[in-house]
């Protein structure tokens, strides 16, 4: 068993008190599932995304294990990370070996050091995710313990949803957290990666990325409106009003269930006639 102080797992290592900072590298084949904590249903898409992230930036969160007498280890927390690491083909894994039933102390140590260690934004996000996954804290609980709002914690966690290639640029310092947060406004992952590459290669500011995101979203919104068919009920109502008022009627109906009605008239006399019909 090899003990390390840097490399894989650097994000979590930075959260552990100095006396406890070392973690171990062990063969992945020696890690056994926890029979008392079965988790049978995993989202395959989410696992594939995590595997891609591990392939790109490494495993930022070591798994937590108990050591067995026969030289194997029982998984305590991190089954999703373990499965993703196996998908990538890792033969060894960084682990923290739990000494006794010390979950509360470990959680408190993680939170205390998260407040004062200089982590990258991606490491911070990975640490928050570990507190959620391994210690069952909510976004609000994490926020209250580290002095951030629930929404701030949620927004930092969203960085883990970015494509693995962008996480790699972020971890290597080619993009800042501001760039990454702006990119979260893009739904098209391929275009998101395109903008990220341009920003990294050409040294874009955060404002330039935000402008690119807004421009793309405006184009997408116009395209969606052009493709969205008008509800049949709106068309039928429009035709009924036209027949009743003997005038062209246009009903605009938006996605927020609000809209407006326009009635055309050809002269003041025509307007007076329509007005009387409406009354």
In short:
The protein has 279 residues and is an alpha/beta fold. Helix content is 53%, strand content 13%.
Textual characterization of the structure:
By secondary structure, this protein is of the alpha/beta class. It has three domains: 2-158, Conserved hypothetical protein from pyrococcus furiosus pfu- 392566-001, ParB domain (Alpha-Beta Complex), CATH 3.90.1530.10; 162-227, no CATH class; 232-278, no CATH class. The protein is built from 13 helices and eight strands. The strands form two sheets. Strands 1-2-6-4-5-3 form a six-stranded mixed beta sheet. Strands 7-8 form a two-stranded antiparallel sheet. A hairpin with a 5-residue loop joins strand 4 and strand 5 (73-77). The longest helix is centred in the last third of the chain and has 22 residues, at 206-227. The radius of gyration is 28 Å and the shape is elongated.
Keywords, please?
alpha/beta, disordered N terminus, 3 domains, elongated, six-stranded mixed β-sheet, two-stranded antiparallel ribbon, single chain, 279 residues, 13% strand, Conserved hypothetical protein from pyrococcus furiosus pfu- 392566-001, ParB domain
The main sheet comes to: 6 strands, mixed
Distance between the termini: 88 Å
Tell me the total number of β-strands.
8
Q: What is the overall silhouette?
A: elongated
Strand content: 5-15%
Give me the strand/helix succession.
EHEEHEEHEHHHHHHHHHEEH
- The residue-averaged pLDDT reads 77
What is the topology?
Blueprint: E1 2-4, H1 10-13, E2 23-27, E3 31-32, H2 44-57, E4 63-67, E5 73-77, H3 79-88, E6 92-97, H4 103-114, H5 121-135, H6 139-146, H7 150-157, H8 164-171, H9 177-183, H10 189-202, H11 206-227, H12 232-245, E7 249-253, E8 259-263, H13 268-278
Parallel strand pairs: 3-5, 4-6
Antiparallel strand pairs: 1-2, 2-6, 4-5, 7-8
């Amino acid at each position: 068993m090899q003990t390390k102080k840097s490399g894989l797992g650097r994000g979590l290592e930075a959260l552990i008190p100095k006396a406890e900072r070392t973690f171990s590298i062990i063969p992945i084949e020696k890690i056994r599932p926890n029979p008392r904590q079965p988790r049978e249903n995993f989202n395959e898409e989410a696992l594939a995304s995590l595997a891609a992230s591990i392939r790109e930036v490494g495993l930022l969160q070591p798994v937590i294990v108990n050591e067995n007498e026969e030289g194997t280890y029982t998984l305590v927390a991190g089954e999703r990370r373990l499965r993703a690491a196996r998908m990538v083909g890792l033969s060894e894994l960084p682990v923290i070996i739990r000494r006794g039933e010390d979950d509360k102390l470990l959680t408190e140590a993680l939170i205390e050091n998260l407040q004062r260690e200089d982590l990258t934004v991606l490491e911070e996000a990975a640490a928050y995710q570990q507190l959620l996954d391994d210690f069952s804290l909510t976004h609000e609980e994490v926020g209250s313990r580290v002095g951030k709002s629930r929404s701030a914690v949620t927004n930092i966690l969203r960085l883990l949803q970015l494509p693995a290639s962008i996480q790699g640029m972020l971890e290597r310092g080619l993009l800042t957290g501001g760039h990454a947060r702006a990119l979260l406004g893009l739904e098209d992952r391929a275009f998101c990666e395109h903008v990220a590459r341009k920003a990294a290669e050409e040294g874009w500011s955060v404002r330039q990325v935000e402008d690119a995101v807004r421009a793309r979203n405006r184009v997408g919104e116009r395209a969606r409106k052009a493709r969205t068919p008008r509800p049949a009920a709106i068309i039928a109502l429009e035709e009924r009003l036209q027949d009743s008022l003997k005038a062209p009627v246009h009903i605009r109906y938006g996605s927020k269930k609000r809209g407006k009605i326009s009635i055309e008239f050809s002269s003041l006399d025509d307007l007076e006639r329509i007005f009387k019909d409406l009354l």
